[in-house]
Amino acid sequence: MSVDAILERAVNGERISMEDAVELYKCDDLDKLGRAADAIMKQWHPEPVTTFVIGRNVNYTNFCDTYCSFCAFYRPPNHKDGYVLDDEVIFQKIKETEDVGGTEILMQGGTNPNLKLDYYTDLLKGIKKRFPNIWMHSFSPAEIWKIAEVMDMTVEDVLRELHEAGLDSMPGGGAEILTEETRMRVSRLKVTADQWLEAMKASKKVGMFGSATMVIGFGESFEERALHLQRVRDAQDETGCFTAFISWLLQPENTGLRRLEKLTPEDYLKNVAISRIFLDNIANFQSSWVTMGPEVGKKSLHFGCNDFGSTMMEENVVSAANTTHKVNSNLTLKLIREAGKIPAQRNTKYDILHRFEGDETVDKDFVMQN
User: Fold this and answer.
1) Torsions phi, psi of 209, nearest 5?
2) Annotation-wise, does 70 bind a ligand?
3) Domain locations along the chain
4) Of 105, 124, 42, nearest in space to 348 by CA
5) Inter-axis angle of helices 30-44 and 3-11, nearest 10
6) Residues 38, 297, 55, CA angle at the centre, nearest 5°?
7) What is the 3-state secondary structure (H, E, C) of the chain?
8) Which of 14, 87, 251, 332 sits 20 to 30 Å CA-CA off 324?
9) In Å, how far from its chain's centre is CA 284?
10) At residue 215, what are phi and psi to the nearest 5 degrees?
């Protein structure tokens, strides 16, 4: 089937297949893919509003026994350069976030085998006691599985205890490409594709939700990318566990994969567009300005993204791979307006908290840290 026919079907509300997705990946007409993705995005979000969340990424530990070849952030357990942040340091970071109108804390770290469940539950309880209005969007599936392994518990039971202690939702970090062919090549010790999906589904069972992610640039095939999208769509059909989808490119510098050719902004925009066209059951697509830069992030708002993601007051993982892009809240407003959209601050559930009409700016802004 021709690319035009596939896109016409998708824009008309028909579900496309993995084989269709592979044909779209082979297509070199980026603008054509972008127009279709933009049309589908507007079916979900008719108003010209682009949302964003004011949040902070707190990397509470860099000790990790997963040793992914593409990660420049981790340190092996007990390494001299490893750390676990003191609770008071974390509390101070959250206070700084609230002081500038922030609502979300994305707390992630390595798979630290020396931390037991009570470390996490005590920390969450301490955070909620001090900051009852902050939303804890924290701990990826790999971290959850490590806690389950250390405690000899099921993933669902771990998530239930974390949720009761104050965890509100779970980010989808660590999906990379959901095929064992690529995972065994670049992250042999990481959770399997099935385990990642199991954790995301379990988050819904215990009363939470999560986000789906995708990273391209590992040398994976178009067929693998299509299979990744299929697995995400199937999980969403089954449980409705995802509120958003975020994709980005592998940042290979300073990592064990530094010899891989880094993909281009066009590759990123194509993947965003095809993902929006294929994933007909996920409402929100986030731009990945953190890895791609603000200008490409702005362009993605015409390739299927309706959300600019988090202002991310602090970021350490991508920065470790020598990729550092910074925006604050007022620059976010400017970029969204330059894309011809109306900026609106949201919370993690995608409820709009405030629309910034005209030239309105944020009263209290921040300088991004890393």
Assistant:
1) -150, 175
2) yes
3) 3-351
4) 105
5) 10
6) 110
7) CCHHHHHHHHHCCCCCCHHHHHHHHHCCCHHHHHHHHHHHHHHHCCCCEEEEECEEEEECECECCCCCCCCCCCECCCCCCCCECCHHHHHHHHHHHHHCCCCEEEEECCCCCCCCHHHHHHHHHHHHHHCCCCEEECCCHHHHHHHHHHHCCCHHHHHHHHHHHCCCEECCCCCCCCCHHHHHHHCCCCCCHHHHHHHHHHHHHCCCCEEEEEEECCCCCHHHHHHHHHHHHHHHHHHCCEEEEEEEECCCCCCCCCCCCCCCHHHHHHHHHHHHHHCCCCCEEECCHHHHCHHHHHHHHHCCCCEEEECCCECCHHHHCCCCCCCCHHHHHHHHHHCCCEEEEECCCCCEEEECCCCCCCCCCCCCEC
8) 87
9) 11
10) -125, 125
357: tokens are 């009409």
Task: List the structure tokens of 62.
Answer: 């860099």
14 carries a ligand binding annotation: no
Paired with 214 in beta bridges are: 247
**Residue in this structure with the two tokens 């279709």, named with its chain if needed:** 36
**308-337: buried (b, 16+ CB within 10 Å) or exposed (e) per residue?**
bbbbbbbbebbbbbebebbbbbbbbbbbbb
Look at domain 3-351 and name its CATH class: alpha beta
The reported pTM is 0.93
140 labelled ligand-binding: yes
Tens of pLDDT, residue by residue over 144-173, are 999 999 999 999 999 999 999 999 999 999
> Does the annotation list 310 as a binding residue?
yes
Using one digit for the tens of pLDDT, what is the confidence trace for 74-126? 999 999 999 999 999 999 999 999 999 999 999 999 999 999 999 999 999 99
Residue 3 and residue 29 in contact, taking contact as beta carbons nearer than 8 Å:
yes
The residue to which tokens 């008719």 are assigned: 46
Structure tokens at 152: 């000899």
Confidence at residue 365, expressed as pLDDT on a 0 to 100 scale: 76
